[in-house]
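Task card 7
Instruction: Convert sequence to structure tokens.
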Amino acid sequence: MLGPTRTKPPSFTCPILAAAVIAMMPFSASAIAQQISLDNKFAMSPVDVQTAEPVNEAEKVDPQLQHQRASKVIDQVLDRLGNGASFDCNVRQRIRTADLEITGVGNYLQVGNGTGRFIFRVQLHDGYGKHSMLQISDGRLTWTRSQIAEEVSLSRVDVGWLNEGARALQRNSPIKPSMKVGGLGEMLDSLRGQYDLSLGTSQLNERPLVVVIGTLKQSRRDIVRTMLGEQPWPETYPTRINIAIAQHDDPETNFGKGLPVRIEHLGERPIDEDDEPALKGETTRSTMVSLLELYNIRPVDPPPVDRFRFDNQNTEIDFVNETARYEQQFGIHVSAKERQRYR
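Output:
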């Protein structure tokens, strides 16, 4: 039996990064463990993105063709994550709150090879407690445990069933539903619904990058405006996202081609008197609100499946089963007979 489902309230923090939901909380400015001064512009500077050359003349003037081209790049990365070689890496996330920046650290392990197994862990500290996010999947169950101070939440998605449901509907894509639940896979896949996509290029440490650029859809902006009423636009709501992907292997490890190395979320704030002169008609400026960096990316041998079993140390906390929400998202509607066959 599926457990209770949860309807998510409107969020004006980061809707893509699970860790950002933790990190965007209004932490105290008094004692951040790894605080970075707001004057340090380099710490939260986005990569310098140049618009990618269009494939043909039609793409120059057709945003839908640009979206489709960028969406194909996302599919290539999802395929690389889900079906490619195993890797692990270190993770650093920097979050801009109202008056400071906070740094969280963690790690990411993706088995690939069609298994759906991964571990994604990020942890932050302030003067009042520990804030953390853990996502772990053994290819059948994906768990998410979030802790903000003493408050712990727990959810589960039966991704094995989602894969079987897709198979029952004769969907034979190499990118299984389980590869789009949690971790980097969900971050990338979820862009398509809320953002208009295009492609750009950049460099990081002289390493060429292809950049998937997401600009908040006008329809989504209108929905948020309606929710806000007379309130000003939240500066921490991302209106642009840059996904920087390595075009070549790292020369030191001969590995990493096709993997994301930076995920940038940029919001917008009203122009003030301290800003450089605004361009004609410009009323807002982009500002970085979240930066997720993946570094020390290296190939690894696939660990045994036991490493991906979730150990629930909070047995008194009821978990929320989110499977039905993903069934709806992926359009997996099957008969009770097909469901029973899986069970």
